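Internal tracking record. Fields below are filled automatically when a chain is submitted to the structure queue. Please do not edit lines marked as system-generated. If the sequence contains nonstandard residues, flag them in the REMARKS field before resubmitting.
Queue: standard
Priority: normal
Entity type: single polypeptide chain
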Amino acid sequence: MFGFDAIELARIQFAFTVSFHIIFPAFSIGLASYLAVLNGLHLRTGRDVYLRLFNYWKTIFAVAFGMGVVSGIVMSYQFGTNWSVFSDKAGPVIGPLMGYEVLSAFFLEAGFLGVMLFGREKVGPKLHFFATLMVAIGTLGSAFWILSVNSWMQTPQGHEINDVGQFVPVNWWAIVFNPSFPYRLVHMVLAAYLTTALVVGSVGAWHLLRDRANRGARVMFSMAMAMLIVVAPLQIVAGDFHGLNTLKYQPAKVAAMEGHFDPHPEGRAPLILFGLPDAQSETVRYAVQIPYLSSLILTHDLSSPLPGLTDFPREERPPVAIVFWSFRVMVALGFAMLGLGLWAAVLRWRGAMYDRPWLHRASVAMGPAGFVAVLAGWITTEVGRQPWTVYGFLSTNDSVAPVQAAAVASSLVAFVVVYFLLFGAGTIYILRLMGKRPDEGTPIEVLGPTRAAGITPAPAVDDTFIPAE
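SYSTEM-GENERATED OUTPUT FOLLOWS
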């Protein structure tokens, strides 16, 4: 297929399926927490707008959660088909961790999801809030275990290798809390919150462009912009700590991210803003750079030495161009998120946040930015780890199953067709749900008769209901 061999096709297939999959958890992790906040605010204040927004977003969450589950199951099967050698060798470590994710986090989500979606009138507001909180905690728990698996593959420790080449756990604490795990977990959870804030903010802005007086749109836009101005700076700080950790344990990845082919033993490495990395000539052509700034950012010291890609054998270098550009896409979008949050904060302070159409248009345009940034970050992380699946121990070439290229190509074509049909339809449905006004519908809850009308025992109209504007 287009001249690719079996291992290249297997890598393309896994990249395709994981890229589809990561979009939905990145959204559902943040959205579950947002639903818990909305539910809690309604429980505390009694304001119907919070419950209306909860009902508005819970349907969207249910669809996204379902698509995330389906795409995750499909992705997991590839460990036993295209990557059976990797599963055999790393299975004693990653198998239990993924099992813990199912037994704890996923079962917690699944156990309370039905109550959250359909059980408010059955269990009451307080238990309904508890169920929503459990779903939110479950999504964070899933992120905990999956990030632990991925981080162990990036910075493996706590294991021994037996006589048949399998990774055998000897210290589960060291395996779970490996050196890069805390940084990756924080970075990913904050990315999920940013992704959700941008989506919620874009939906709110979309409806504000049509009706500035829409209560639901105002509340969701205000909450999203507040989340953005808080989380975006935290993400930049977390990214800085993550970079320091990566420099310590995966220096070749950092050299590829920065485009540094030559080492800088005396520090003062330039920050290459743009350019065309050329792995063959080991240079970045047409480089636009700022002197010394890379050393200052990466080590916080102008004189600290930095490695270059020429410090490593060619066969142990990651693909430079992909890592170089995906990293820049992620960073650029991160600062764009910060800029949008600052813009909204200034207008909030001036009392004009709901009256500036250009802010709302920018928010709509930035709606997909969180997904793009998450994908760019995962490309940087996973491609930058190459040529290893378990960094420094097991190469990608030694992890692939003995399958024919034609078999992998056939399944890849099937995945592409089915994914675009199935998830394309699901995405269109979600967009249609987002296009509905957040205050549409009937009264949010009927608690029974409020008063008798004459001698007729029928309930009168609930005075608390405010019809759609």
